[in-house]
Every structure is written in structure tokens, then in C-alpha cells.
Amino acid sequence: MTAEVSAACKGALQAGATDIWVKDAHASARNLIAARLPRQTRLIRGWSGHPFSMAQELDESFYAMLMVGYHSRAGSGANPLAYTISGNIARLTINGRDASELLIHAYTAAFVNVPLVFLSGDQGICEDASALVPSITTVAVKRGVGDASINIHPQLAVEQIQAQVQIALQDDVSQCRLPLPEQFAVQITYKEHAMAHRASFFPGAVLEQAHTVGFESPDYFEVLRLFAFVL
Q1: The whole model's pTM is what?
Q2: What's the half-sphere exposure (Cβ side, CA atoms, 13 Å) at 186?
Q3: Residues whose CB is less than 8 angstroms from the CB of residue 88 and which lie 6 or more positions away in sequence, other chains included
Q4: What contacts 131, CB < 8 A, 6 or more positions away?
Q5: Are 231 and 49 in contact (CB under 8 A)?
Q6: Which of 58, 78, 188, 203 counts the most CB atoms within 10 A of its CB?
Q7: Nearest CA to 184 among 140, 219, 230?
Q8: pLDDT tens digits, one per residue of 9-50
Q9: CATH of 2-230 among 3.40.50.10780, 3.30.2130.10, 3.30.430.20, 2.60.40.10
Q10: pLDDT tens, 111-128?
């Protein structure tokens, strides 16, 4: 993971970037080896608790957002590690669309008007990214087959990520701005009914079925606030 993130940073530097923020965003968020990243990076480790989560510190001043090492959503068969935020979630939808961590944080980027220009990860999430943002650049480094994954060589992954990030950032990044919906209808289906019962007490949340909670808002930050407390 460190090698792939470093490759993305190097590609960004080759494209002219001078300041790169990296959010370590899996599990404990203490996975990346800081000393192996370029000197121009700032690494955010751990979880602050801010609703932006994997997009912590992102704001309107950023030129672009890149996602490295992403996996498919809960309910997908495209990756043995397919889940969305928490292993407690069976299914999560936003406006009827099955939500991955890609979708959640792509909307966060749209919320602050930052283009999402690049994603690497499994083949399934790359396909989802292209469907969501047609002009995005993707690199698929693996594909899932049942409980197995078929991976390209690590060095090839690094080379492709570095090259494609450079191309993505040198292109017209405005083509990768994602329109933000005007209204959000969220449904969260938990594996355990007791978790849905508990989540239903979040302000505005409604227990729709034994395992499912619904929530609606015109403000995406309120959706992110919900996720911060109930996922």
C-alpha cells in the first residue's frame, strides 16, 4: 500500500503538484510508512472523528482528489474484502444507488467542489468509478474471484499508478467534477437488527424495517454526520 501511495504522489509531483496531503484510511489508519513517501507529502494518520472521515482536511483550496487502494462496496462480489465502512453493514444506498466508500467520499469531494480525477483498486470499484465520473482515470490492480483475488505484479501496479496519475492531473480536471444531488435519501441495512434499532435514535433517522434505517436531508454534511455516528 505504501508503494502504491508513493507512486501516486510521485505522479502528482511530475504533473506539477507542490503540496500533497495523504489520508491513511484503512482500519486503524496507521498503515502507511511515512519515511517511504515523498518529502512533499503531509500524512494524516488515525481518525480525528470529523465527519469527512477518509477525506479529512479536504476543502475548496484543493486542486484534485485521488483515491488509491479502494475496494468494492458491501454486497459486491468483486473483492473478498468488499464492504462499506463497517463489516456490520449488509447494504448501504444513497438515492437508491448502492454506496461504496468511493461514492461516499466522491460526494464529499463534490460537496467542496473538488474534482475526483483518479482511483486505483479492484476491477469492480474501478468500473463503479467510471460509471460515476466518466472522465476519471483508473488503474485496476486486482480482481476478485470468490474468496480469492488475482493481482497484477506489484511493480507493474506502481508503474501504472504513477504514470496514470501524472496523465490525469495534466488533463482538464474540471471534467471530473461530480454534480452533487440536491436531496439525499439514505438506507442502511445492518446485519444485526439490534444495530438498526440503536441507529434509529439518531435525529432524523427512521426504523423502516427490522434491519433497515432510513434518513433524508438536503445537506450532504448531515448525511456524513449520520455516517460518523451510526456506521
Answers
A1: 0.96
A2: 29
A3: 190, 191, 192, 195, 231
A4: none
A5: no
A6: 188
A7: 219
A8: 999 999 999 999 999 999 999 999 999 999 999 999 999 999
A9: 3.40.50.10780
A10: 999 999 999 999 999 999
